[in-house]
Every structure is written in C-alpha cells, then in structure tokens.
Design a protein that fits this description.
Elements (H helix, E strand, L loop, with lengths): L1 H25 L1 H8 L5 H12 L1 H28 L5 H20 L5 H15 L18 H17 L1 H4 L1 H8 L3 H14 L1 H29 L4 H37 L1
Helix pairs in contact: 1-2, 1-3, 1-7, 2-11, 3-4, 4-5, 4-6, 4-9, 4-11, 6-11, 7-10, 10-11, 11-12
Length: 264
C-alpha cells in the first residue's frame, strides 16, 4: 500500500510538471498532445488494478474509453465559450457540458469494440469543429507549477478513494475527469490568452487517438489477469498510435504553408 500511495502522490504531479515544461518549450499544441497520453488515467487505472483487482479495472477502462467522448464535449464547449467568456465562464460551461455527457454515456452500454469505433469517429469529427482562435500567446505564468501538480495529485486521491463507492464503470469515467483541461487549459487561457487554450485543446484531440487504443487494449488484456503484460502492451500500442497521429494529423496544417512558400 505504501508503494501505491507514493505512486498517487508523486507520479501524476511529476507528469503534469513535465508536460507543462514541454508546453513552455514547444508550445501549447505539443503540451495538449502529450497530455492526452494516459498521463493521468493510466496511473489511476493502475492503482485501481492494485486495489480493486484486474476485473474491476477492466470495467473501469471501458468507462474511461467512452469518457473520451465527454472530454471532447468539454473541449469543444470550452473552446467556443472562450470566444465570449473568460476562464471562469468557459470552465463552468465546459464542465457542465462534460457532466451532461457523462450522465448520458453512463446509461449507454456498448461492447469495447463498438465503443472504440464510436470514440475514433468522434475524434475525427471533433478535430473539424474547433473555432478559429488566432495565434497562441507567448507570455507565461512561471509560478503556477505547484498548483498544477497539486490538482493532479488531488484528482488521483479522490478518484481512487471513492472507487469502491462509485463502481467500476463510473470510476472509469472519473478517471477521465478533465484534469488536463481544468488545469493546463485554464492556466494557459489565463496566462497567454484564448489562442493558447484552443491550441492546447486541439492538441489533446490529436493525442486521444492513442489514448483510445490504450483503453481498449487494457480492457481486453486485464481480463486475462496478467497485469504487467496488460499495461505494457496497452502503453506500447498507445505510444505507436500517439506518435503516428501527431505526424499524420499535423501534416495537413504544414502542407498549405509549404505550398504558399513555394508559390512565392
């Protein structure tokens, strides 16, 4: 139990710290893409496996997979609301949209394969529905790292502590609570403007293709009981898709610029 507690209190805040630094080095789109890797949900599902068992975590992974749709609703709601409201208003509307989506999805029963197809279809659609927001800002708030890390640790503790009361499926949904949205996007919006927030959300959508692969592979492999193999295989498959999605989906945005340069 001591090792699990250390994992909860150190791993997730450390990963949030690294993503924040990466965003400051390479921009909000890269930060969003990195944050969509199983950076928070992965450790949560791992601790659920250790504490509640592989069968419980397999069901939770199914809920986490469907919850990607809810996080997409949050992302789009925040992006569109940010055209009219500041951080508080955009966050409120985004979280209300997320909660409504979770309530609807909680009553939806889909086989993992069908849920995977639904999520990938939603990801492809969502990438086309973001509003134009202008260029990302350049300024940053350098004193927000402790708050980001604290938020990540608090989420892990809250979800894992309530897992037995929430049940496996709802625990999976709460493993996908938009911690990266509320923390990274909120701070980006407040510190460098709406353009940075929307760019980060777009990057998250790109990263969720690999995340969906992680969830479906983990759910299937955990049913066989080999916890180490299940997580290693799920992470390996997710990493391949994660990198491929970044390269493929970034290509259309680069080609027009290259063609415009060639014409001049």
């Amino acid at each position: 139990m001591n090792a699990v507690l250390v994992l909860k209190l150190t791993l997730v805040p450390l990963l949030i710290w690294l993503v924040t630094l990466a965003g400051r080095r390479w921009g909000p789109a890269v930060a969003g893409w990195l944050s969509a890797f199983p950076i928070v949900a992965g450790p949560i599902l791992f601790t659920l496996t250790l504490e509640q068992g592989p069968a419980f975590a397999a069901h939770a992974a199914e809920g986490t997979l469907l919850a990607v749709v809810a996080i997409l609703v949050f992302s789009l709601a925040y992006a569109w609301a940010s055209a009219r409201f500041g951080v508080a208003g955009s966050m409120t509307l985004g979280l209300l949209a997320w909660a409504g989506s979770v309530a609807a999805l909680q009553a939806t029963q889909l086989a993992p394969g069908l849920a995977f197809v639904l999520v990938w279809g939603a990801l492809l659609l969502a990438s086309r529905l973001f509003p134009a927001a202008g260029p990302a800002g350049t300024g940053t708030r350098r004193n927000d790292l402790p708050w980001r890390m604290l938020a990540g640790a608090a989420l892990v503790l809250a979800v894992t502590a309530g897992a037995a009361h929430l049940g496996a499926r709802l625990s999976g949904f709460f493993a996908m609570f938009p911690v990266m949205g509320t923390v990274l996007v909120g701070f980006a919006h407040a510190g460098t403007g709406r353009g940075s927030a929307v760019a980060l959300l777009r990057g998250m959508v790109t990263g969720f293709f690999g995340f969906a692969v992680f969830c479906v592979v983990l759910s299937m492999r955990l049913r066989e009981g080999a916890v180490g193999v299940a997580f290693a295989l799920a992470l390996g498959c997710a990493l391949v898709v994660h990198v491929a999605a970044r390269r493929l989906l970034a290509r259309p945005s680069v080609l027009p610029a290259a063609q415009a340069t060639a014409k001049t």
